[in-house]
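For reproducibility, we list the full input for the iron/sulfur cluster complex.
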Amino acid sequence: MTDARALAAAYLKQQRLLGGDSVVIGSPAPEPVTTLPPVSPSAHPPAGISFDPPASDLFATDPLQQAHSLADVAALVAGCVKCKLCSGRTKTVPGEGLATARLVVVGEGPGKTEDETGRPFVGRAGELLTKILEAIKLPRDQVFICNVVKCRPPENRLPQYDEIAACVPYLHRQIELIKPKVILAMGGTAAQTLLSTKQSLGSLRNQVHRFRGIPLVVTYHPAALLRNPNWKRPTWDDVRIAARLLEN
Ligand code: SF4
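The corresponding predicted structure, in tokenized form, follows.
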């Protein structure tokens, strides 16, 4: 080994011992760095900004997105077998009322009479709802009334998570088509579903929320009012909030 090679070997050994980068002898020369062309400011979104979906119909194969009227939605509901509630139903209960309603009332799910008739909010709870609406000078036929699930849960139990998840796109599409001025969510299931929350009804009522930009008021379900008349007063307070929003 020449003096120069011995010197170089000693230097590299010392570098290794000091923790320096390893040296690869005989590796190819690095590629020259090429300069990338400038990127147009509109080519990529800045960090944290999301783009809307493309204008083309991304969900063209989804029949619900192709439902252009409440009757179209009702027809899809009539043939729906997306959850286990289909097996026990007599009739589907898609909802009823004006397609141009300023107020949409959303309840939980059909009960026995609703299941038999195919109409929402009939029976004693329905009569009470009709009175509540009349008290704010809204005839029942001027609003749209529906439920979160469109088939009756057995024994009037609460709809389960998977049933709500399967059914709620129908409700979303109905609201999308009607474009109401105000939504009145009656009962915890309607409120928690539309607001995607687990908060109690008591903590959600007496204030104005938003569902996709639409003011939403939460109050007790008429069936609960029949069981507990003490809730009539707070319900009236909530309904008056909805009435004021409709006036604006
Ligand atoms: S409850 Fe809704 S998702 Fe379930 S079968 Fe009835 S319409 Fe379909």
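Residues 83 and 163 are 6 Å apart (CA to CA). Residues 161-178 form the longest helix (18 residues). Both points were considered when choosing residues for closer inspection.
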